[in-house]
Amino acid sequence: MSTKHEQILRYIESLAVGEKISVRQVAKVLEVSDGTAYRAIKEAENQKLVNTIERVGTIRIEKKKKENIERLTFAEVINIVDGVVLGGRDGLHKTLTKFVIGAMQLDDMIRYIDAGSLLIVGNRLKAHEIAIKAGAAVLVTGGFDATDEVKQLADEMNLPVISTSYDTFTVATMLNRAIYDQLIEKEILLVEDILTPLARTVTLSPEDSVDQFYEVNHQTSHSAYPVVKSDGTLVGIITSRDVVSNPDVNTVGKVMTPGPITVNGKMSVASAGHSMIWEGIDLMPVVNDAGVLEGIISRQDVLKALQMTQRQPQQGETIDDIVKNQMKAIANSPEKIEFAVVPQMTNQFGSLSYGAMLTILTEAGSRTIKLQKRGESMPENVTIYFIKQVQLGASVTVETKIIHMSRRSIKLEVELTSNDGIVAKAMGTFQLFEK
């Protein structure tokens, strides 16, 4: 039996692309609490099923296939450029194939505009009309408006007309950055790309006899199997070693290892492989957020996948700039900051890179020193004495504590946590600038 959370996600997925949804609507239709509906809608947003736009609401969008992940929807464009919808609101779910900068004569511009493209242009009113009639959306830069005729035409053709206060060059740079971010994500191999799906996974239940283990072991020659309840929830794993170590026990539930180490489909293959080697296991169950089994991966699967993985391209922006932009202070806890791991902060395996980690530690230390009214500082040395894999998209909290302070230097302890677990600990010494 599926959970309410899963039922809501299936309901959202069944909605027509472009349809608006709300917490109250979902709560009423599926007879759940507003809190349950809100959490499920946020999960749908993480899964790229919906997109929330200020002053527009939450709309169902087309879930992009991984090979087309570099295409942006017009709804995503609005969020990227802090835009306002002037017309064509019903077309926000559509994806753009390319964008064109309108910096040429109108006759020449027509040759570059086609259906599915996005024209980036200022207050050239005739260009707005030409683009819409050619099947393209329009992004008006400089905060300018469009004519009522263009807005009406956009509504009729379901082609968005968006206005942003940024200039044309800045907008083009922002869209390039967003597309590049998604290209990086595309290159990262995830567990869901290599897992053996549930339909092809041999499982046992806690009530099965040990004889049934021997039977499937003889048929498949595998040495380990997930143990699941009738609703698909993973409860343990049984291996040949478990059976041999308990010769007098007759049921799988009494022999299995409960609470096995699992992996989520969105985790990178490299991180999963690291865990398998660290823990010394050959098979790892893949579960969803509700603990329901979705499949398995083996150490052999991981090794084959990593052999085929290619290195990612170089990023064009400095780690320092990206880290500083990501770090946000936590309300009511000035000593803590949080950030999300974005693509440029990862290594070729999709985990937070060592260089980004050092930048985070030094930035956090400098910020703590400023909070103590000690002015500017420079890191003298930073030693990371504990570190774990931190995945792309993970939310990380950084807490810095001062352990010693003198007139010219400060020693700090920095702790990074994610999902209530420690992912890194470090010590740092910072030299204070003379005032």
List the helices and strands and how they pair.
Elements: H1 4-14, E1 20-21, H2 23-30, H3 34-46, E2 50-53, E3 57-60, H4 74-81, E4 84-87, E5 98-101, H5 106-109, E6 117-121, H6 125-133, E7 137-140, H7 148-157, E8 161-163, H8 168-187, H9 191-194, E9 196-197, H10 210-220, E10 224-228, E11 234-239, H11 240-245, H12 252-255, E12 257-258, H13 269-279, E13 283-287, E14 293-298, H14 299-308, H15 319-326, E15 328-330, E16 333-340, H16 354-371, E17 377-387, E18 395-405, E19 409-418, E20 421-432
Parallel strand pairs: 5-6, 6-7, 7-8
Antiparallel strand pairs: 1-3, 2-3, 4-8, 9-14, 10-11, 11-12, 13-14, 15-16, 16-18, 17-20, 18-19, 19-20
Helix pairs in contact: 1-3, 2-3, 6-7, 13-14, 15-16
